[in-house]
């Protein structure tokens, strides 16, 4: 009888674990809160992929990678507004880009056409995490740490 009760408990615990992990947004599960797609890039802190998106060791590593991309958008391509950044990040062929732009601009508190300052990038990342996942579970310290590792390295 004890073995049967233990087996039932194990199935219950496993079911709860699977249910919990499936209800957590993919970007959060992957420590890739801005949902960076798998590519040939060898990201620092990458531990693999889920078939479509990179998986990172920590959320800071995922935020670091996103910050590197955003820095490249600014420095290499001259993309400095929310409209320019989000249009490249989430192109209309795959996303409701206008909704994404409006959501992020509102959360950052700037016009979608206004050039961002470096201080705005922390708020931009926070807003993009929320839009990508339907939640933003990280502390500002976690976001700042990942941002600093990526934007200033």
Short overview:
By secondary structure, the chain is mainly alpha-helical. It has helices at residues 2-23, 26-29, 59-77, 82-89, 97-108, 118-133, 140-151, and strands spanning 46-49, 54-56. 61% of the residues lie in helices and 5% in strands.
The outline comes out as: globular
Overall mean pLDDT: 90
List low-pLDDT spans. Answer: 16-20
Name the helicity range: 55-70%
What class would the helix/strand composition place it in?
mainly alpha
Largest sheet: 2 strands, antiparallel
Number of helix segments? 7
Distance between the termini: 59 Å
Number of strands: 2
Order of helices and strands: HHEEHHHHH
Describe the fold and architecture:
This protein is mainly alpha-helical and 153 residues long. The protein has one domain (2-151). It contains 7 helices and 2 strands. Strands 1-2 form a two-stranded antiparallel sheet. Strand 1 and strand 2 (54-56) form a beta hairpin. It is globular and about 65 Å long.
């Amino acid at each position: 009888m004890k073995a049967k009760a233990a087996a039932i408990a194990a199935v219950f615990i496993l079911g709860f674990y699977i249910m919990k992990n499936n209800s957590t947004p993919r970007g959060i599960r992957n420590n890739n809160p801005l949902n960076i797609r798998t590519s040939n890039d060898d990201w620092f802190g990458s531990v693999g992929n889920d078939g479509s998106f990179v998986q990172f060791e920590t959320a800071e590593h995922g935020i670091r990678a996103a910050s590197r991309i955003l820095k490249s958008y600014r420095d290499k391509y001259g993309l400095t507004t929310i409209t320019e950044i989000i249009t490249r990040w989430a192109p209309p062929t795959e996303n409701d880009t206008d909704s994404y732009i409006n959501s992020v601009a509102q959360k950052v508190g700037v016009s979608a056409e206004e050039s961002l300052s470096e201080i705005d990038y922390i708020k931009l990342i926070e807003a993009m995490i929320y839009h990508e996942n339907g939640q933003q579970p990280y502390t500002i310290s976690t976001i700042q740490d990942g941002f600093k590792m990526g934007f200033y390295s």
